[in-house]
Amino acid sequence: MSAAKSVVVGVDGSPTSAAALGWAVRQAQLTGSDVRAVTAWSYAPAFDPGWGKRTVQDIEQAHRRELAEFVDLARVPGVQIRAELTEGDPAEVLLAASRDADLLVLGRHGRGMVLRALLGSVSAKCLRAATCPVVILPAVTKGNAGEVLGALRDETGPII
């Protein structure tokens, strides 16, 4: 695989997406790439406990602040990180952002079957439709990550 020059990473405010952003930044250091930290947002009143108390602009600004905080924590010398906030379906936003990227990095949440059935899996949608390689990091768990048991080889097919 040739060195990536543009790494897109999905950031949704979760610990798993923070880990994905950290991984993407380390990958960018190794390959001389830039990082685009992408957050997709939408307003769904049915899922908003503060419904009626906040405006759509308030919600957008909250997402913008959260994304900026994540990016600020991930900054390292020599890697440019650009924060991008886009309204829309997360999978569609990430697929559009990664269209010209060399790599798409996502964190896996491991939501339950009910939520997955209702909302769909962003990771699964991106794996099926992305035009670049996709890296999916496992859900963040407590405890020691353990030792490396294997390494990637030069292969052309997807590795899941």
Automatic annotation (TrEMBL):
InterPro entries: Rossmann-like_a/b/a_fold, Universal_stress_UspA, UspA. Residues 5-138 form the UspA domain. SUPFAM superfamilies: Adenine nucleotide alpha hydrolases-like. It comes from the Bacteria. Pfam families: Usp. Transmembrane segments: none annotated. PANTHER family: ADENINE NUCLEOTIDE ALPHA HYDROLASES-LIKE SUPERFAMILY PROTEIN. Belongs to the universal stress protein A family. This is Universal stress protein. It comes from Amycolatopsis pithecellobii.
